[in-house]
Amino acid sequence: MECPVCKTTGIKEEAKTCPNCNADLESFQLLKKIEKSSKNRKNTIILLIIIVILAIAAILLVLFLPSGETVSKDEKIRMEQQIQNLKNENIQLTSQIAELNKQKETLTSESLQSKQKCEEVAYTVRWGETLYLIAESFYGDGLKYQKIAKDNNIKDPDFILEGQKLKIVFD
To answer: What's the CATH number for 119-169?
Structure first.
C-alpha cells in the first residue's frame, strides 16, 4: 500500500497509520472499500439493465412476430405458388448449368486439340495466374505445370511474374 499523504510505499495493508508521517490510513482504506463496493454496484446495475432489455426484447418478439395461424388462406396459396415457381426456376437453371458445362467441356477439348496441332505457343503471364492455371488452360491438366517450368527453366514454379514470357511446348 502507498501512503496517500507522503507517498511512502510498501506499507502493509492492515497498518492503521503511516510509519513515515503518522497519517491515519484507516480512513483511506475505508474509502477504497467504498469505491470497490460502488464499482460492484454499478456493474450489478448494468447487468440488471441488460437483462431487463433482453427480457423486453423477447416479449416484443413473442407479441409481434406473426405465428403460422395469422397467415390468411390466400396468402398461404400465394406463398406456395411462389415456392413452386422458384422450384421450377431452379430446375431450369440446373439444366442450363448442365448444358453450359457440356459446352465448356466441348470447347476445352476443341481448344486443347487446336493447341496441340501447334508445336509451341508463346504466352505472356497475366496478373494472378499460376503455372497450375496456365497448364490447366493449355494442357487440360494443371499438374502439368512442372512441364512448363522445365521447358522455361523456371527453378521455383511458385514464383512467376506478370508480363513474364513463357513458351508452351506441345509434344
So the answer is: 3.10.350.10
Residues sharing a CB contact under 8 Å with residue 126, sequence separation 6 or more, in sequence order: 162
**Residue 16: strand, helix, or coil:** coil
Give me the residues paired with residue 141 across strands: none
Give the model confidence (pLDDT) of 21-30 as tens digits.
887 777 777 7
Q: What is the pLDDT of residues 141-155, one digit of tens each?
A: 999 999 999 999 999
Nearest to 45 by CA among 57, 37, 34: 37
The three cell numbers locating residue 132: 497450375
The beta strand positions in the chain, using DSSP E, are 120-124, 165-169
Buried/exposed code over 141-166 (b: 16+ C-beta within 10 A; e: otherwise): eeebbebbbeebebeebeebeeeeeb
Cα 107 from Cα 100, distance rounded (Å): 10
Domain residue ranges in the chain: 1-63, 73-117, 119-169
Residues listed for the chain: 171
pTM of the model: 0.34
